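Q: Hi! Curious about what Metalloregulator ArsR/SmtB family transcription factor looks like structurally. Here's the sequence.
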Amino acid sequence: MPDPALWAALADPHRRAVLALLRTGPRTVGEIARACELSQPSASKHLKVLREAGLVRVRQEAQRRMHTLDPAPLAALDDWLAPYRKLWGESLDALGRRLDARPDARPDTTEPTTPKD
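A: Let's find out. The predicted structure is below.
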C-alpha cells in the first residue's frame, strides 16, 4: 500500500495543481506561486509536503532552487490501483451489457432542441 504521506499530499487541490505544473518542467518557488496563484510562503509549505511525500525533488542551480516532479511514488500508486481499475472496468462492462439487454434499450433518436431568441 502506498505511503499515507502520499495520500495526504495528493488530497489537497493546490498540491495537485503544483504537480500538474511540474509535469511541464522544473520551476522555482516564485514561478510555482505565480502560476498557481499562491503566496510564496504558501507555495513553499505545499512544496515541503510534496517533498516529504517523495513527489518533488529540489536541486540547486546557481542562485535558484529548482523543483522537479518525481513520478516514482505515482507509479507505485498506479501499481496499487491496478487491480481495482480492472474490477471497475469489469463492473462497468457488465452494467453496459445489462443495460443493452433491457427491452426498452434503444438509441436516442430525438433531435436536440435549440433555444429560440
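A: A fun detail: Residues 4-71 form a domain with the Arc Repressor Mutant, subunit A fold (CATH 1.10.10.10).
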